[in-house]
From TrEMBL:
InterPro entries: Snf8/Vps36, Vps36, WH-like_DNA-bd_sf, WH_DNA-bd_sf. Its main location: cytoplasm. The gene is VPS36. This is Vacuolar protein-sorting-associated protein 36. GO terms for molecular function: phosphatidylinositol-3-phosphate binding; ubiquitin binding. The lineage of its organism: Eukaryota, Metazoa, Chordata, Craniata, Vertebrata. One of its GO terms (cellular component) is ESCRT II complex. Component of the endosomal sorting complex required for transport II (ESCRT-II). Belongs to the VPS36 family. It is found in: Cytoplasm; Endosome. PANTHER family: VACUOLAR PROTEIN-SORTING-ASSOCIATED PROTEIN 36.
Length: 279
């Protein structure tokens, strides 16, 4: 009992002393507990599911921003390309109007610059509609731009080569494979000097109307007879053609009975048909 009484007296004395001195008035108030923040951004860092959702949303917004900027740059590029086409067309017209003021060498050099820029006014669905009319106009333009390349390549080009050549010349106005095939099918109806040909293997080519099938067969037979035998790769090197077209020529000569084949582990090799030549 005496110990408890002593403790009570000590507590009472200390309480009285603190109340008289009022120390809480001179002690600064305690600071609020700081929340976790990101030192780099200054934003409150959320944790748990809320934090994950917030990060996903931030990434989505960033991705949308990047995509928008990318397409904005692409749109600017397309506008610039159209401006270049208009510029080339206006320069070409000035050349026609001022033939006397420009020397022949300058005209040739200038036209070569314009030609390297591609087709000045490509046929598009926006300018010529869709359907048959569009393919007819496209066929006319293809007939004009393919004539010289075909003559340089021996009168025949695979449709894949034509596709790459045409789209390179068209620049931003790319042509679909379907539209190319439909346009090439109209060469003969338009009486163009070109035609679309489909070999038995399914390979599609564009060739000159003047390109003789007999000449192709004769060329294949002469080269095979001269070398004794040839593969499609060897024949392609001799003629400077693609392996695909060289093989089709050899197969055509075989179909007509002028060549025969030896299909072994070494590959497909063609020989002169002695039964036909000695008959």
């Amino acid at each position: 009992f005496s110990i408890l009484s002593l403790s009570h007296h000590g507590f009472f004395r200390r309480l009285t002393e603190e109340l008289s001195q009022k120390r809480w008035e001179s002690t600064p108030m305690s600071q609020p507990i700081p929340t976790a923040t990101n030192s780099q951004t200054g934003r409150t860092r959320a944790v748990g599911i809320v934090g994950i959702e917030r990060k996903i949303e931030e990434r989505r917004k960033e991705t949308e921003k990047n995509i928008s900027e990318a397409f904005e740059d692409l749109s600017k590029l397309m506008v610039k390309a159209k401006e270049m086409v208009e510029l080339s067309r206006s320069i070409a017209n000035k050349i026609k109007d001022k033939q006397g003021d420009i020397t022949e060498d300058e005209t040739i050099r200038f036209k070569s610059y314009l030609l390297s820029m591609g087709i000045a006014n490509p046929v598009t669905r926006e300018t010529h509609g869709s359907g048959t009319h569009y393919h007819l106009q496209l066929a006319k333009q293809l007939g004009d731009i393919l004539l010289a390349p075909l003559e340089e390549r021996g009168g025949m080009m695979a449709l894949t080569e034509v596709y790459c050549l045409v789209n390179r010349a068209r620049g931003m106005e790319l042509l679909s494979p379907e539209d190319l095939v439909n346009a090439c099918k109209m060469f003969e109806s338009l009486k163009q000097p070109l035609r679309l040909r489909i070999f038995d293997s399914g390979v599609m080519v564009v060739q000159l109307q003047s390109h003789s099938e007999e000449e192709m067969i004769s060329s294949a037979l002469d080269n095979v007879t001269d070398k004794g035998s040839l593969t499609a790769e060897e024949f392609a090197k001799l003629l400077g053609l693609s392996v695909l077209l060289s093989k089709e020529r050899l197969l055509l000569a075989e179909k007509m009975g002028h060549l025969c084949r030896d299909d072994s582990v070494e590959g497909l090799r063609f020989y002169p048909n002695l039964f036909n030549s000695q008959a």
